[in-house]
Amino acid sequence: MLNNKKIIRAFAPATVANVSCGFDVLGFAVDQPGDEVEIALNASAEVVIKSIVGDKGRLPLQADKNTAGVAVMSLLNALGLKQGVEITLYKNLPLGSGMGSSAASAVAALIGINYLLGEPFQKKDLLPFAMEAERVACGAAHADNVAPSLLGGVVLVRGYDPLDVVDIPLSGQLYCTLAHPNIELKTEDSRQVLRQNIPLKDAITQWGNIAGLVAGLMKPDYDLIGRSLKDVVAEPIRSLLIPGFNEIKDAAVKEGALGCGISGSGPTLFALSKNYSTADRVGRAMQLQFLKHKLNSEFYVSEVNRKGAYVIAEAVTA
Ligand SMILES: Nc1ncnc2c1ncn2[C@@H]1O[C@H](COP(=O)(O)OP(=O)(O)O)[C@@H](O)[C@H]1O
Ligand SMILES: N[C@@H](CCOP(=O)(O)O)C(=O)O
């Protein structure tokens, strides 16, 4: 008798975490780019990464070091299952980019394994497994990349203990430009440069802005969004690691962006705009500024994603 094998292909989008003022508590997903996995069950009791396409050999193939493998192992553990799983990772996102690269691999793998097992978990309940993978990638189980990559939309992590994730309904159109220069910053390193204490004055500015941003997104009030896209906690320090940061940000706003800041822990910068053509012009302006600082870059324009990760296709092989 033939032993049929079901293979699932799943996609998880890149994400912009923090969104300036929401350090570790706010993030949104974009439509593209994103990571993909092909995942199948087998008769062994081991989780293996069969191959990784697109990483130029840089990512660990050991399942307990790769976020895709860690996330799957964590889910299987929760179910008390010793199940063999094989994963092929299509690594489309640049590493150490600030675009939630480590999160996207974990989320795509989770969507795939959950589907293969008959969906024992609701989408939202997959979050703790993806956070476990983030802990391995950058030493902190932050949820502001994995939550929007999984669920789509703009997501607020209201609290971590217990995890309380809130979907922020977006009522208007919103386009994101991601400008990614060809340098890398490891999230782990750019977390270490942060101050551990914040003066009360800065805290007041920051929580005013995060509340203003959430209100602006929900109304929608584009001016309020623009006024609120300010970060006095992480950006003043992290921006020093990004050549030309202030000029690039100024150029984006001059070209019509509502605001601009560091995507995740950088070096990618994000900008928000009301429509596609502005977002596209903003991307060109940002690229030009990076060039002035001797950096090549690519840029992506996408509407803020409302769908999150999904199964692209399933196939059965003999
Ligand atoms: N599947 C994966 N994708 C990306 N990075 C991974 C993956 N698995 C493990 N890592 C590790 O995580 C680190 C990159 O994560 P991070 O700096 O958070 O990048 P990003 O900001 O793009 O998410 C690297 O040390 C890398 O080896
Ligand atoms: N909140 C985290 C987000 C890191 O995002 P990444 O895309 O750089 O992994 C942080 O700011 O450290």
UniProtKB/TrEMBL annotation:
<comment type="similarity">
    <text>Belongs to the GHMP kinase family. Homoserine kinase subfamily.</text>
</comment>
<keyword id="KW-0808">Transferase</keyword>
<dbReference type="Pfam" id="PF08544">
    <property type="entry name" value="GHMP_kinases_C"/>
</dbReference>
<keyword id="KW-0547">Nucleotide-binding</keyword>
<dbReference type="GO" id="GO:0004413">
    <property type="term" value="F:homoserine kinase activity"/>
</dbReference>
<keyword id="KW-0067">ATP-binding</keyword>
<keyword id="KW-0963">Cytoplasm</keyword>
<dbReference type="InterPro" id="IPR006203">
    <property type="entry name" value="GHMP_knse_ATP-bd_CS"/>
</dbReference>
<dbReference type="InterPro" id="IPR014721">
    <property type="entry name" value="Ribsml_uS5_D2-typ_fold_subgr"/>
</dbReference>
<keyword id="KW-0791">Threonine biosynthesis</keyword>
<dbReference type="InterPro" id="IPR013750">
    <property type="entry name" value="GHMP_kinase_C_dom"/>
</dbReference>
<dbReference type="InterPro" id="IPR036554">
    <property type="entry name" value="GHMP_kinase_C_sf"/>
</dbReference>
<feature type="domain" description="GHMP kinase C-terminal">
    <location>
        <begin position="214"/>
        <end position="288"/>
    </location>
</feature>
<feature type="binding site">
    <location>
        <begin position="94"/>
        <end position="104"/>
    </location>
    <ligand>
        <name>ATP</name>
    </ligand>
</feature>
<comment type="pathway">
    <text>Amino-acid biosynthesis; L-threonine biosynthesis; L-threonine from L-aspartate: step 4/5.</text>
</comment>
<dbReference type="InterPro" id="IPR006204">
    <property type="entry name" value="GHMP_kinase_N_dom"/>
</dbReference>
<feature type="domain" description="GHMP kinase N-terminal">
    <location>
        <begin position="71"/>
        <end position="153"/>
    </location>
</feature>
<keyword id="KW-0418">Kinase</keyword>
<comment type="function">
    <text>Catalyzes the ATP-dependent phosphorylation of L-homoserine to L-homoserine phosphate.</text>
</comment>
<dbReference type="Pfam" id="PF00288">
    <property type="entry name" value="GHMP_kinases_N"/>
</dbReference>
<protein>
    <recommendedName>
        <fullName>Homoserine kinase</fullName>
        <ecNumber>2.7.1.39</ecNumber>
    </recommendedName>
</protein>
<keyword id="KW-0028">Amino-acid biosynthesis</keyword>
<dbReference type="InterPro" id="IPR000870">
    <property type="entry name" value="Homoserine_kinase"/>
</dbReference>
<dbReference type="InterPro" id="IPR020568">
    <property type="entry name" value="Ribosomal_Su5_D2-typ_SF"/>
</dbReference>
